[in-house]
Specification:
Layout (H helix, E strand, L loop, with lengths): L6 H26 L2 H28 L1 E4 L2 E4 L3 H8 L1 H32 L6 H8 L1 H4 L2 H11 L8 H4 L31 H26 L4 H9 L4 H12 L1 H17 L2 H6 L11 H11 L3 H32 L1
Antiparallel strand pairs: 1-2
Helix pairs in contact: 2-15, 3-15, 4-9, 4-12, 9-12, 10-11, 12-15, 14-15
Length: about 325
Amino acid sequence: MEADRPMEQIAAPLVQGDSSSTAKAKRRRRRFNWLPFWLILPTILILLAIQVYPFFYTIVLSLRERKPSGWVYVGTRNFERLFGSAQTGESLGHTLVFLVGYAALTLSLAFFIALLLNRKSRLSGFYITLLFIPWILADIIAGAVFRLLVLPDYGLFSGILQRPGIFGPNGLSVLTADAARPWFGSFPFPPSPAMIYLILASSWRALPFTTLLILAALQTISNEVIESSRIDGASSWQTVRHITIPLILPSLVVALFSLTLGGINGVGMVFSLTSGGPGTSTQVLGYLLYSIGWVRLDFGRAAALALLLAIVNLALIFGTLRITRMQERSV
């Protein structure tokens, strides 16, 4: 009798079963569409609490001033006071001197060390492990260690620094010696001994990351390209200048942006090594922000300075992202 039934009647239950299962699958998909959101919700809440809310509160704070009667709206007065302060211009000069010395020294040493490590000797892994030691130390700890090295009474280098035959009649106290007379008006150059020492300590701290970044870029260069240049008679310097540097130039630019970003925001090394001294010879913008906000308790002006630094940071971040995208397109 089943054979006498039309095919439509036989297929109808199957079609209905398929449609019902499809509807159930769609309902199931709709039910689980919210699952990714619930999974990332804790992260979103944390970001809102520690980044988004403080950012907007900083904007509000930069437009207000603390009075005995409470918070008073002052508009752009905090920015005007900031730009009109001679201390801001002085700190900007110290920041520029620090950034140029810090970035140039770190990038040069990192490039040279990366070239050595790229030769893949038997102990390359051991050397890379040693390279990580500065990276695992916090800025505060590294600054405290470097400060202990040059203390006049019992520092490790105090015996050399206090010798009159090497550093003048009274020796050299790195942390208290005054800077030389500026060469260009009020611009703080040449830097004080404390600023030079701060640049050396900061470069030592940032050297591992920059070296590994450049080493990773060097390892992307094909050996055939280097061997072809040697066959053509190029010297080692010519190979580095005309082949290696152009090929890893995007990575060098990214490393430069990263160093500049870290140098602008870094305050831990300054805090523990020099505390902005002697005088104000190492007071960079990051430490000036700390001093205005937490020493003078002028939170409105500190918020205004923080916003200006945030704008500089965003410009550097967008520049880094643009260079990275250009590098990806060229690959």
